# Entry
Amino acid sequence: MPKTSNMGASKYEFAPERFELDIKMNQQRYEEKKKEIRNQVKKTLEGDPVRMDETISMYVEVLRELKRQLGSDTSE
# Structure
């Protein structure tokens, strides 16, 4: 007789070992994406090192605007 659920519909109920694997893969994806973004920003900053502070301020301003426009503004 197949195992029946006592918890409801959880994708990890019958394969709990998958939970740790998914966490590890999500952390890896996050770190890779962060590294990619860091490299892009660094390249831009190194392109005009004299105006680095100005460029950083522009990045912050643009990111706030995009966050607002895309509807994901929950912290301001």
Notes: DSSP finds two helices and no strands in the chain. Helices lie at 17-47, 52-69.
